[in-house]
Amino acid sequence: MNDLRRIDLNLLVILDALLAEQHVTRAAERVHLSQPAVSHALARLRDLLGDPLLVRQGGTLVPTARALELAAPLAEALAQVQALLAPNRFDPASAKRRFRVAMSDYSAAIFLPDLVRMLRREAPGIDLQIIQASREGMVEGVLNGDLDLAAGVFPDMPAELRTTPLFEEHYTCLVDRDSLPADGVLDLPTYLSRPHVLLEMRGSGTPEIERALTAIRERRHVAVSLPHWGVAPQLIQGTDLILTVSSRGLLNIDHPHLLAVPPPFHIPSFAVELAWNVRRGGDSGLQWLMGRVEGLKLPHDRSSH
Question: Global pTM?
Answer without folding.
Answer: 0.63
